[in-house]
Specification:
about 60 residues, alpha+beta, Arc Repressor Mutant, subunit A, two-stranded antiparallel sheet, 3 helices, about 10% strand, globular
């Protein structure tokens, strides 16, 4: 699994456990796993483009896809 795919999987795992704003999700992934803000933002954008997550009312949610 590539590093970007690993990061996307971590994002999905994190969102299955907790609700996050963009800032809180970036903070958790950078503090706990050492990802850069740019890498996290790119992975969030990719997941959004793939339809796997959405940003509703200030927080990220998983989609049913």
């Amino acid at each position: 699994m590539s590093e970007p795919d690993r990061l996307k999987a971590r994002i999905i795992d994190e969102l299955e456990q907790n609700r996050h704003t963009h800032a809180s999700l970036r903070h958790v992934l950078s503090e706990e796993y050492g990802y850069s803000d740019a890498a996290v933002s790119a992975a969030i954008s990719a997941l959004n483009d793939e339809g796997k997550i959405k940003h509703e009312q200030g927080v990220f949610e998983l989609t049913d896809d």
